[in-house]
């Protein structure tokens, strides 16, 4: 895997509240730029392995794309991982949440590409890194505002 972007932030909310918000991917469009919509695509509860979503996102030079998203790892109040079925990037999002105290948490948000080809590393990843890091910087600030208000 190739790291595309990473941001870290302190949020003045308990880790359980942060996890419950971010693991409900239907909230993703409320804080992450260029996500037009994201809806549940099966009956599994939010935050569990096997939950599926369908995301509509704005892709540079390609317009709107629908991307199937699956929760592939999850540990209540601490760790949440999704993977998208979107070629050629094959994105993987990891969110790690650490409890600071009863009223605050540290959160790390990372985006990876599961495409390990040489062509992807030379052509795709530099553009993806630029776009995603800008989106992540804005998104993490929105997330903090949404959770602290």
How helical, in percent, are the residues?
A: 25-40%
The N- and C-terminal alpha carbons lie at a distance of 35 Å
Largest sheet, if any? 7 strands, antiparallel
- Cα radius of gyration in angstroms: 15 Å
Please, what is the average pLDDT? 94
Number of helical regions: 3
The strand count comes to 7
**What order do the strands of the largest sheet run in, or round the barrel if closed?**
1-7-6-5-4-3-2
List keywords for this structure.
single chain; 149 residues; alpha+beta; seven-stranded antiparallel sheet; 43% strand
Question: What does this molecule look like?
Answer:
With 149 residues, the chain is of the alpha+beta class. The protein is globular. It has helices at 15-22, 28-31, 118-148; strands at residues 2-11, 35-40, 52-59, 63-75, 79-84, 91-101, 104-113.
Short description:
This protein is an alpha+beta fold. Helices cover 29% and strands 43% of the residues. Strand 3 and strand 4 form a beta hairpin.
